[in-house]
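User: Can you predict the 3D structure of Alpha/beta hydrolase? Sequence below.
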Amino acid sequence: MNRLSESHAFWLQATAPFRFALEARAGLEFASLFASQPFLYSAPKGDGHPVLVLPRLLGCDLSTQPLRYYLSSLGYATSPWEQGVNLGPRGGVLNGCLKRLEQVHAAHDRKVSLVGWSLGGLYAREMAKEAPELVRQVITLGTPFAGEHKPDEIWRMYEAATGDTMGLPEQHGPLDEAPPVPTTSIYSRSDGIVPWTASVGREGPQTENVEVESSHLGLASSPLSLYIVADRLAQPEDSWHPFERRGIKGWLYRSPVRIS
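Assistant: Sure. Here are the predicted C-alpha cells for Alpha/beta hydrolase:
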C-alpha cells in the first residue's frame, strides 16, 4: 500500500462514524420524492423493456417498491426479485436469480435490464457475466465490487464462524471485473455503509461511474439516484453512451474526474 492509499484508507476509517450517522437522512431522501416529482418526470420515458430489481442485504421487494413504482410509471415492465429477504450470497441464491432472469426474459421476449442495490448489484453483475445474452445493461447502487477489502473476505470469515457456504462463484473472473454488457455504478462519497471507493470501477467503452449525494439506505429512493437509473434505462438497445452532464445535470451530478 503506497502513501496515497494509506492516507485515503485512514481518511475513510476516521470519517466512518460521521458517514454512518448521516444514514439517518434516508427518511428525508424518501420524503423528498414528493417534492421532486417535476424533476423525476422530466426523465426520458421508457420503451417498455423489462427491468429486474434486486434488493440490498437484509432488504426485500418491499424495500425496492419506490424505485420499481417510479420505473413502472415511466413505462418499463418492472419486476421484483421474488426471493424474500436478501440474507446474503448463500448457496443457490445466484441460481435462483438466474432462474428469475430467465422467467422475466421469457415473459417479455426481450433482453432484461438489471438494477441492483448494494449486494443486489453484485448479483446483477454476476448474472450478466453468466447470461449476457439475456441482459441489456446493469445498473448498481452503492455496490461493493472494488477496493482493497473485497466482500469475499467477509464471506470467508462468515463461513469459518458458521459453517454455512457463502459467496459468489468466480468462474467468470473476480468481482471487480466488469460484465460484458453496458454497466453503470452509482455511488455516494457520503455513503455510511459502503466506502465509495469500493463502488468505483475502471471506466471503459461500456462502463461508467456516476456520483450522487445520498445515504446508502436512501440510494434506492433518492431523487438523484432514481433520475440516473431512468436516464440510463432510456438509451436505445445496442446504442449505449456515458451519462451526459448538460444543463442542470451539470450542477446536480459532479464530473467523473473527481474520482482521481
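The domain at 24-259 is CATH 3.40.50.1820 (Rossmann fold). The mean pLDDT is 87.
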